[in-house]
Amino acid sequence: MSEQKMSRRSILTALGVAGAALATGSFIQVTSAQQGTVTGHMYGGGPGGLPEMLKKRVLALDSIADLNGYEGEYAGRQVHLIGYMPGTDTGGGIYYWDADCPKFAHNGGTIVSPTVPFDRNNLAGFLQRAGETDPSGLGCWMAIGLLVDVNTVSALVAGGRRETFHFEGETSISAEIFAKSSLYAWNAEIVQTAVDHSIVYFTGVPGPSYKDVVGFRLAQPDSSSPGGGTANNHASIKFGGGEFNRVMLNKVDTAALGISFGYGSIHLPRRRHEYGVAAFNSFRNIEKMAIENIGASYSMIVGNGVDGIRGNSHGIRLSGYGKPTDAADAECEGVVGAANVIRGMQTGVSMQNTAKGFNLSALYMENVGYAVHAIKGTSQANNPTLGRVDFSSKNVGRGIWSQGASYTTYDFTINGTSEGAGVEELTESSAEGHNVYRGVMRRTAGTGAMIRYSYQVIDLLIDSPAQSGCVLSGGFCRGSVTVTGAGSNGVAVYGSNNKLEVVAANCAGYELLIAGNRNVMDVNIDGDVLLTGSDNQLRGFISGTITVQGQGNDITGVQGYTARGRYAGTTNAAGEVAIPLGLRAYSKGFSVTATVEDAAENGSCRLVSLDSSGVATFAVFANHVPVASSGIVIHWQAQAL
Fold it and tell me: Matching InterPro entries, A to Z (predicted)?
């Protein structure tokens, strides 16, 4: 490829006064390390040493090997590497001394510990801190600027000398490109031969801004099994801090990880990455994550296609760090996205520590372990919150799996699960609830929806779940649930103070079971109801049987049913007892019968009266003599006429 040429006058005009001073050497000096010792360059030969300004010149060193054993004399000390490998002018760049950086952060590229011995014949070992002599110590050299791996082709090197450079053809690298500039290609291919690091890594101080990666085909070995998590360092394209960077129209094929918008150096005024764009990229055979946001906010994720290999990670990950619980301060906030397709991953979307204010819509997920996955944060304040997810899914292991997420809205269709529930909230003491669930699901392998948190809004249509349709354990929830063909109960309410509309039919167990207290239910049920809780109120139509075991339940607003109940109490001297049956004042009346449990021979129970409020008076006899007893147990049944 050809390189554009500019005259010296054009260059100086473009650079301006400060740039001209820099270009002519009058602004800073670069001293060759080959002309004397470090001490000599720092302090000079005279008795008084050099002037203070000259003590802080940028020191030129041959390669990364010259950083071995050399610690900066002061914070911010800068050196310029002519090349990355000894005796070359490929790569290199500016480094500054950070006396507080832990040596375990060494990666051999952007962060270099002077106590890791350099061996050009064992570059992989150097990158992985092999031989570190002070593993718990502090002090590293931090990269500023452009580093290019020595094995890259000449076109890459030549292009790297411009602010924006283009790729053509195909190349193979063994380490990673530490990039400062934008990268453009038209279907050019970069094949990584080892997955020790990223393929392209934008980093430095200040963080990279307004950088583009467009039009590449990137590949990593398919035999790799890199570690996941925050410090994975294996993304094909990775950003360490910065803002307004874009990754578009790339093909990431057979890779460990895809794109990572990550947090940057602790020295950045805003450490998290902001306003990143991941658009119209394709990911195939992704083993870990496709698009990661770790300490990144305001990312825009649009029109990407992910076809993974069902590894152990995520299509889209939202995570970060939040003080005071976490040492770093790099939250994941305000990530938005639309029109993304995710297949074959362990998780479609994972919301994690400090994820908040996210809005991901028009998602389609298929053959994933979890469609949407929320993990609690390091503290309640760092739990995923105040987000929105809108998706359709097919053949997933589980639909929504939530551990502590709150104030989040889910709109969804779930076409089958193979491993568990359509919606499941895990028992979690730090959960605040206040979520909204609106959706349709069918053929779930477990329960349709398991709602455990409180103060929630639900609007669910559930067909043919293998177990119960909806199990509600939270309190103060409202909404509607329609269940057909459940393998167990249709709707089971264990929480209290809920208000629901319930439609249920053709369930193997009870269409409605209420074990909580003070719930208000508007029902239309073709089947049976069990009331074991107390002070609940039912209104509507029930074609089957209502079994009442709790106290104070009001079923006066229900039509078309058979009611059953059990009463344990005391009869008076006349052998009579008044039992509130909770029956509706029904114009056609009821046929009420009762029996006495463990009654003596010839014991009987008969209805004396039934008033308009549904209170029945029964009389108990033994051998035709009234029984006054404190241990009477009566079983009653009322059939609507």
Answer: TAT_signal
| CA-based max dimension of the chain | 128
pLDDT, tens digit, 9 for 90 and up, residues 416-460 = 999 999 999 998 877 889 999 999 999 999 999 999 999 999 999
57 touches 94 (CB < 8 A): no
Instruction: Say yes or no to pLDDT of 54 above 50.
Output: no
Name the amino acid, one letter, at 533: G
Residue 615's region, left for phi above 0, alpha for psi from -120 to 50, else beta, is: beta
Q: Which amino acid is at 621?
A: F
Q: Is the peptide bond before 206 cis (omega within 30 degrees of 0)?
A: yes
pLDDT in tens, 23-45: 333 223 333 333 333 333 333 33
Q: What is the DSSP letter of 35?
A: G
Q: Alpha-carbon distance 270 to 330, whole Å?
A: 8
Q: H or E segment at 587?
A: none
Q: Which residues contact 409 (CB under 8 A, 6 or more apart)?
A: 387, 388, 389, 435, 436, 438
411-to-204, 346, 387 alpha-carbon distances in Å: 40, 21, 12
Nearest to 419 by CA among 400, 439, 445, 391: 445
Please give the model's pTM, rounded to 2 decimal places.
0.70
Cβ atoms of 458 and 441 closer than 8 Å = no
**How do strand 182-192 and strand 170-173 relate by DSSP bridges?**
parallel
369: nearest Cα among 342, 335, 406: 342
Tally of residues, the chain: 641
Find out whether 366 and 343 touch, Cβ atoms under 8 Å: yes
The winner for highest mean pLDDT among 132-146, 176-190, 448-462 is 448-462
Tokens of residue 368, six digits = 């994933």
| 326 within 8 A of 298, measured Cβ to Cβ | no
Q: How far apart are the first and last CA of the chain?
A: 93
The region of weakest confidence among 287-291, 361-365, 403-407, 594-598 is 594-598
330: alpha, beta or left, given left = phi > 0 and alpha = psi -120 to 50? Answer: beta
- CA 518 – CA 533 distance, rounded (Å): 8
Burial (Cβ within 10 Å: 0-12, 13-18, ≥19) of residue 248:
middle
Strand positions, DSSP E, 176-281: 177-179, 182-192, 200-202, 212-219, 235-240, 246-248, 251-255, 257-262, 273-274, 277-279
Across 131-140, 225-234, 540-549, 554-563, which has the greatest mean pLDDT? 131-140
